């Protein structure tokens, strides 16, 4: 009986600690971005989190990047941790269309940006083990999708037409519902334990997250209407961000085709989830 109580107390304590960590990370990301956020995350112990508790840190930190609209160069750290590279590097990453990019760590006026991210095209690169990095990007995409859904939902509740909120219109409700289903499905895929099929699981999870984010961008834009196209509204920042993140480490379209080709060549479909 006592051991059960102790176990429950440990779980409760862990939940409180995780909640405090999430609150701290969210406040930090809302106040900083780019190299400034890199420095803030380093002070919060990002390196230790990635090394000691990556199964918790990756979903939490990258999801919050999406929800807050901030950005940091920590995808470099995930790749370097996977391959045992030296800290502080900028390994080349494959991008949609067969090009390679590096994620600059230092901000500067001369740095090129793609969707607001400091990505610079390089001649070529070497394909690394990207399973964990794909999952991290998947959580970032899911976070961005949830941010767009929250914006569209708020607008649907506030915007009144014909004497009633547009959230009462069936077409609007369907768009929001379809977006939520896509996001929940992507989160479920990202949460699958990939011990037996790590590469395939992460590939499909990144593809599902990319599709969910693109679905959110399309549907939420339609719900917001003209206001969603303006510079004054937040939506366009999230839309540009997910278009870039979807292409990094393979777009949802490319990864889906790659998965299909691999399964056809294998001739069998592995069990990815124990139901």
Automatic annotation (TrEMBL):
<feature type="domain" description="Acyl-CoA dehydrogenase/oxidase C-terminal">
    <location>
        <begin position="132"/>
        <end position="252"/>
    </location>
</feature>
<keyword id="KW-0274">FAD</keyword>
<dbReference type="Pfam" id="PF00441">
    <property type="entry name" value="Acyl-CoA_dh_1"/>
</dbReference>
<dbReference type="InterPro" id="IPR009075">
    <property type="entry name" value="AcylCo_DH/oxidase_C"/>
</dbReference>
<keyword id="KW-0560">Oxidoreductase</keyword>
<keyword id="KW-0285">Flavoprotein</keyword>
<dbReference type="InterPro" id="IPR036250">
    <property type="entry name" value="AcylCo_DH-like_C"/>
</dbReference>
<dbReference type="InterPro" id="IPR050741">
    <property type="entry name" value="Acyl-CoA_dehydrogenase"/>
</dbReference>
<protein>
    <recommendedName>
        <fullName>Acyl-CoA dehydrogenase/oxidase C-terminal domain-containing protein</fullName>
    </recommendedName>
</protein>
């Amino acid at each position: 009986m006592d051991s059960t109580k102790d176990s429950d107390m440990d779980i409760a304590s862990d939940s409180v600690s995780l909640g405090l960590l999430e609150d701290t990370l969210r406040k930090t990301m809302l106040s900083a971005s780019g190299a400034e956020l890199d420095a803030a995350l380093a002070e919060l112990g990002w390196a230790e989190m990635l090394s000691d508790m990556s199964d918790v840190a990756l979903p939490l930190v990258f999801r919050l990047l999406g929800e807050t609209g901030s950005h940091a160069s920590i995808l470099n750290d995930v790749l370097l941790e996977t391959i045992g590279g030296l800290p502080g590097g900028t390994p080349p990453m494959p991008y949609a269309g067969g090009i390679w990019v590096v994620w600059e760590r230092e901000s500067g006026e001369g740095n090129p940006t793609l969707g607001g991210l400091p990505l610079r095209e390089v001649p070529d690169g070497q394909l690394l083990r990207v399973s964990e990095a794909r999952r991290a990007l998947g959580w970032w995409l899911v976070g961005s999708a949830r941010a767009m859904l929250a914006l569209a939902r708020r607008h649907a509740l506030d915007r009144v037409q014909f004497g009633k909120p547009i959230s009462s219109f069936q077409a609007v409700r369907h768009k929001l519902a379809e977006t939520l289903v896509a996001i929940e499905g992507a989160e479920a895929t990202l949460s699958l334990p990939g011990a037996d099929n790590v590469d395939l699981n992460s590939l499909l999870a990144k593809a599902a997250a990319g599709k969910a984010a693109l679905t959110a961008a399309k549907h939420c834009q339609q719900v917001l209407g003209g206001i969603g196209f303006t510079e004054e509204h937040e939506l366009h920042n999230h839309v540009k961000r997910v278009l870039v993140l979807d292409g990094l480490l393979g777009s949802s379209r490319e990864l889906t085709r790659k998965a299909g080709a691999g399964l056809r060549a294998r001739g069998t479909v592995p069990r990815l989830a124990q139901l």
